C-alpha cells in the first residue's frame, strides 16, 4: 500500500489557486522529493498532507487516513519537520527530545536519536546556543523520536553551509536505510538528485514532470554539442548525438575538432527549462 | 493523566528556566510587596481600619494573579505560537486539550507558590496575620486563577507578533493593576479613574481577596464582585474559543 496517495488535489486561497490539481503516489519506504521554486505550492501541498490545511478539492490519503480526519493514532506514526525551526530555546537538546518523546507511546531511545542526528557533543547544551544547522538537526531529531513510519521534511537544509548540508543528507540516507518513508520539499536540485528515489517538479501549483532523477534528464532528449568552426563557437542540440558526431567527423575529415564538447543535459538544465 | 503529568513537568521546567518570565510574573509582585511594604506598610488606612501592609498584601496577591495567569500565560503562548512551537506540537499525538491543561496547571502552581510566598513574607516581615477563612481564601484564589487565565488565553488572539506580545500585554495589565487599586486604595482616586476601576476585573477581584483576608468575610459575601470577575472570565473564554490560534501568522 502507498504511504501517501494524492489525487486531483487543489487548494485555493480566495481567487488564487496555489495547487491546481496534482496527483502522486509515494510507495512505502521511498524518498520522494517535491521540487520547485519558491511559491510553486510545495509547502501548501505538504501542509495539507500533514493535516494543517484543508484542501479545496481532491482525494488525499496519508498512511491510509484522510489528514483532515487524522487523529492521535495517526499522528503516532508521523514525523514532521516544519519549514522554520520551532524549538524551546531554554531546554537542552536531550530535554527537548525527552519532551517530544513523551508525547508518543512508541518512542526511540533519546540517546539513540541524539546519536542519529549527530548531536552527541551538544546533548546537554541549551538549544539557544546551537548553530542554525544544529537546530535543524535537533528539529529532525524531534521528528524521529516517535519512531515514525513517514516523515515530512519541508526544506530541511535551506540556509545550511555545504558541510552541514552533506551531513544532513547523510542523516536522511540513514533514515531511508531504516525503512522510513520520506517526503521532502526542496528548491535545491542537487538535494533532490542526491536523496530522492523519485521527484515531482512543481511549477505554479502543477506537476510539470515526475520520475526518477535519471529519468528526468533522459526525458529531455536533446544533447548539446559545442565546437568551433572557423573560430566561431557553434552550439547544436540534437536528439541523436552519435549520428551528429559521425557527420561532424566526416565534415572535418577526421581532423581534430576544435573545442569539441558533448554534454548530456543535467538535471539542472531540465529543472531550469521546466520552471522558468 | 500520564500525558498531562508529562506536560505539566515540562511546563514547570520551561517556566523556571525562562528567567525573564519568572522574574516579571513570579518575582515582581513579591518584590513590590517588599518595597512598598517597607515604604508605607506601617501607615494606617483609616477608611479600612487596617495597617497598609495588610491592605497591600491582598493587593499583591491580586497583582500576582494578573501577572502569572494573565500576562505571563498570554505572553508565553503568543511567543510559542509565533515561533512555531504550538504548530509543531499539533503535529504530535499530544491532544491539544491536554497541552492547554498542562500549561494551565503549571501556571496555577506558579501562582499558588507566589501567593504562599507573599503570605509568608507578610507574616514574618510585616506581621500580617495569615488568612483565617482558609476555605473561602482558596476558593477566591481558584476563581481568580481560572478567570484571569481565561482572559490570558483570550488576549492571545488579539496580539499579532511575538515582539509585540509583552508590549501589548504589559500595556493592558500594568495600568489595570494600578487603576484597580492593588497598590493603593482606589477609594481615594479621582472620579474618572474610579469609573474605570469599577468595570475592571482586578478591582473586583482585589476586593474579594480583601473581603476574605481583611474583613474575615466568606467568599460569597460580595456576589456583585464575583459576578464581574466571572463575566470577564467568560469574555476571555469566549475570545479564546473564537480566536486562539495554533499557527503563526502567515509570512
The proportion of strand residues of chain B reads under 5%
Q: What is the makeup of the main sheet of chain B?
A: 2 strands, antiparallel
Sequence of strands across the biggest β-sheet of chain A: 5-6-7-3-8-9
Globular, elongated, flat, extended or rod-shaped: what is the shape of chain A?
A: globular
Q: What is the overall shape of chain B?
A: globular
The level of helicity of chain A is: 25-40%
Oligomer: heterodimer
Q: What is the mean predicted local confidence, pLDDT of chain A?
A: 89
Rg of chain A = 23 Å
> Which spans of chain A have pLDDT < 50 for at least 5 consecutive residues?
none
* Percent helix range of chain B: over 70%
Specify the structural class of chain A. alpha/beta
In the CATH hierarchy, the third-tier topology of the largest domain in chain A is known as: Rossmann fold
Give the second-level CATH assignment, the architecture of the largest domain in chain A: 3-Layer(aba) Sandwich
Topology:
The complex is a heterodimer of chains A (276) and B (251).
Chain A: E1 2-13, E2 16-27, E3 31-35, H1 42-49, E4 57-62, H2 72-75, E5 78-81, H3 93-101, H4 110-116, H5 132-144, E6 150-154, H6 162-177, E7 181-186, H7 189-195, E8 198-203, E9 206-211, H8 213-219, E10 223-229, E11 232-238, H9 241-251, E12 261-263, H10 267-275
Parallel strand pairs in A: 3-7, 3-8, 5-6, 6-7
Antiparallel strand pairs in A: 1-2, 1-4, 8-9, 10-11, 10-12
Chain B: H1 2-17, H2 19-40, E1 44-45, E2 50-51, H3 52-82, H4 85-90, H5 96-125, H6 134-155, H7 162-179, H8 191-199, H9 201-213, H10 223-243
Antiparallel strand pairs in B: 1-2
Overview of this structure, please?
The complex is a heterodimer of chains A (276) and B (251). With 276 residues, chain A is an alpha/beta fold. Chain A has two domains: 2-217, Rossmann fold; 221-275. Chain A has ten helices and twelve strands. Chain A has helices at residues 42-49, 72-75, 93-101, 110-116, 132-144, 162-177, 189-195, 213-219, 241-251, 267-275; strands at residues 2-13, 16-27, 31-35, 57-62, 78-81, 150-154, 181-186, 198-203, 206-211, 223-229, 232-238, 261-263. In chain A, the strands form three sheets. In chain A, strands 5-6-7-3-8-9 form a six-stranded mixed sheet, with helices on both faces. In chain A, strand 6, helix 6 (162-177) and strand 7 form a beta-alpha-beta unit. In chain A, helix 3 (93-101) packs across helix 4 (110-116) and helix 3 (93-101) runs parallel beside helix 5. The longest helix of chain A has 16 residues, at 162-177. Chain A starts with a strand and ends with a helix. Chain B is mainly alpha-helical. Chain B has one domain (2-243). Helices cover 75% and strands 2% of the residues of chain B. Chain B has ten helices and two strands; from the N terminus they run ααββαααααααα. A two-stranded antiparallel ribbon of chain B has the order 1-2. In chain B, helix 3 packs parallel to helix 6 (134-155) and helix 6 packs antiparallel against helix 9. The longest helix of chain B has 31 residues, at 52-82. Chain B starts with a helix and ends in an 8-residue tail after the last helix. Chain A binds chain B through residues 50-52, 72-73, 75-76, 78, 80, 82, 84-88, 90-91, 95, 99-100, 102-105, 142, 146, and chain B through 3, 6-7, 10, 13-14, 17-18, 83-85, 87-95, 247.
Amino acid at each position: 500500500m502507498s504511504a501517501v496517495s494524492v489525487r486531483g488535489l487543489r487548494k485555493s486561497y480566495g481567487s488564487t489557486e496555489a495547487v491546481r490539481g496534482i496527483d502522486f503516489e509515494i510507495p512505502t519506504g521511498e524518498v520522494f522529493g517535491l521540487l520547485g521554486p519558491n511559491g510553486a505550492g510545495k509547502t501548501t501541498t505538504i501542509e495539507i498532507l500533514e493535516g494543517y490545511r484543508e484542501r479545496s478539492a481532491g482525494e488525499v490519503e496519508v498512511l491510509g487516513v484522510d489528514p483532515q480526519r487524522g487523529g492521535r493514532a495517526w499522528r503516532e506514526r508521523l514525523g514532521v519537520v516544519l519549514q522554520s525551526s520551532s524549538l524551546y530555546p531554554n531546554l537542552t537538546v536531550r530535554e527537548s527530545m525527552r519532551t517530544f518523546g513523551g508525547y508518543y507511546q512508541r518512542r526511540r531511545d533519546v540517546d539513540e536519536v541524539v546519536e542519529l542526528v549527530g548531536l552527541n557533543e551538544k546533548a546537554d547544551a541549551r538549544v539557544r546556543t546551537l548553530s542554525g544547522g544544529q537546530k535543524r538537526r535537533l528539529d529532525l531529531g524531534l521528528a524521529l523520536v516517535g519512531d515514525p513510519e513517514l516523515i515530512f521534511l519541508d526544506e530541511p537544509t535551506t540556509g545550511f553551509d555545504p558541510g552541514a548540508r552533506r551531513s544532513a543528507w547523510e542523516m536522511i540516507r540513514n533514515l531511508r536505510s531504516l525503512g522510513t518513508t520520506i517526503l521532502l520539499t526542496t528548491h535545491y536540485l542537487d538535494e533532490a538528485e542526491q536523496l530522492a528515489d523519485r521527484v515531482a517538479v512543481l511549477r505554479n501549483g502543477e506537476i510539470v514532470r515526475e520520475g526518477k532523477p535519471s529519468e528526468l534528464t533522459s526525458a529531455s532528449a536533446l544533447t548539446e554539442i559545442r565546437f568551433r568552426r572557423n573560430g566561431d563557437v557553434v552550439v547544436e542540440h540534437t536528439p541523436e548525438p552519435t549520428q551528429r558526431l559521425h557527420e561532424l567527423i566526416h565534415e572535418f575529415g577526421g581532423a581534430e575538432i576544435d573545442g569539441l564538447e558533448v554534454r548530456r543535459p543535467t538535471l539542472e538544465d531540465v529543472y531550469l527549462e521546466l520552471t522558468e | 493523566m500520564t500525558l498531562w503529568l508529562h506536560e505539566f513537568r515540562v511546563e514547570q521546567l520551561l517556566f523556571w528556566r525562562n528567567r525573564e518570565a519568572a522574574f516579571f510574573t513570579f518575582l515582581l509582585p513579591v518584590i513590590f510587596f517588599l518595597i512598598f511594604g517597607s515604604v508605607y506598610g506601617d501607615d494606617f488606612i483609616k477608611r479600612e481600619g487596617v495597617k497598609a501592609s495588610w491592605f497591600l498584601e491582598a493587593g499583591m496577591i491580586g497583582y500576582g494573579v494578573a501577572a502569572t495567569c494573565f500576562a505571563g500565560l498570554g505572553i508565553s503562548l503568543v511567543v510559542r505560537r509565533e515561533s512555531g512551537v504550538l504548530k509543531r506540537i499539533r503535529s504530535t499525538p499530544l491532544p491539544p486539550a491536554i497541552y492547554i491543561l498542562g500549561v494551565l496547571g503549571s501556571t496555577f502552581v506558579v501562582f499558588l507558590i507566589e501567593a504562599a510566598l507573599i503570605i509568608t513574607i507578610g507574616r514574618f516581615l510585616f506581621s500580617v496575620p495569615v488568612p483565617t477563612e482558609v476555605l473561602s481564601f482558596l476558593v477566591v484564589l481558584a476563581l481568580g486563577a481560572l478567570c484571569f487565565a481565561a482572559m490570558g488565553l483570550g488576549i492571545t488572539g488579539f496580539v499579532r507578533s511575538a515582539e509585540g506580545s509583552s508590549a501589548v500585554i504589559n500595556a493592558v495589565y500594568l495600568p489595570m493593576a494600578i487603576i484597580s487599586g492593588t497598590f493603593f486604595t482606589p477609594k481615594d482616586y479621582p472620579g474618572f479613574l474610579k469609573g474605570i476601576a469599577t468595570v475592571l476585573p482586578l478591582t473586583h477581584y482585589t476586593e474579594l481577596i480583601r473581603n476574605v483576608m481583611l474583613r474575615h468575610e466568606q467568599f460569597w459575601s460580595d456576589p456583585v464582585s464575583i459576578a464581574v470577575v466571572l463575566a470577564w472570565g467568560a469574555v476571555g473564554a469566549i475570545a479564546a474559543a473564537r480566536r486562539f490560534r495554533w499557527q503563526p501568522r502567515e509570512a
